[in-house]
Write a structure and sequence with these properties.
6 helices; mainly alpha; 82% helix
């Protein structure tokens, strides 16, 4: 199946899946961000926060479906630079408000502790993504070699 689609197209599918994940995070973040505010925008009688959260859930469902059913997952998620870029964007979306509010911290000790905490979290998550990408690449190569060996016999 992978040969029918091609490895470059699989990378494109993986990028599309990651973009859907990013849209999910953004829509959900905006929806939850206006949850406790007095913003009462509505489309008809439905509050905009509910629409954003529903769109986030639908986008997440589509992303999960594609991720589960498209072939070559070990290959698709084995590109280290792509995995690290995705992790950076995900962290920026999740910690965005904290990073922005960091600039309002007057105490230097709190600033340094905050920077260290974010740096440790980033290093751990980047390391995990790199290890998973390498493992997926190795599994893909082993599967590819096994399939090639079977077709030769």
């Amino acid at each position: 199946m992978i040969q029918c689609i091609g490895e470059k197209r699989l990378r494109g599918f993986q990028i599309g899946i990651y973009l859907l994940g990013l849209v999910t995070i953004i829509l959900g973040g905006i929806g939850f961000g206006i949850w406790g505010t007095h913003i009462s925008w509505k489309i008809g009688s439905v509050p905009i926060k509910w629409i954003l959260l529903a769109a986030a859930l639908i986008t997440f469902g589509v992303m999960a479906y594609f991720d589960r059913n498209l072939p070559g997952k070990n290959y698709r998620s084995s590109i280290i630079w792509l995995e690290c870029i995705v992790e950076a964007f995900t962290l920026a979306c999740i910690f965005g408000n904290s990073i922005i509010s960091f600039w309002n911290i007057d105490n230097m000790t709190e600033s340094i502790v905050f920077i260290l905490i974010i740096a440790v979290i980033m290093l751990c998550l980047f390391a995990a993504r790199i290890i998973v990408a390498r493992t997926n690449r190795e599994e893909y190569e082993m599967q590819k070699n096994a399939d090639k060996h079977e077709t030769e016999q």
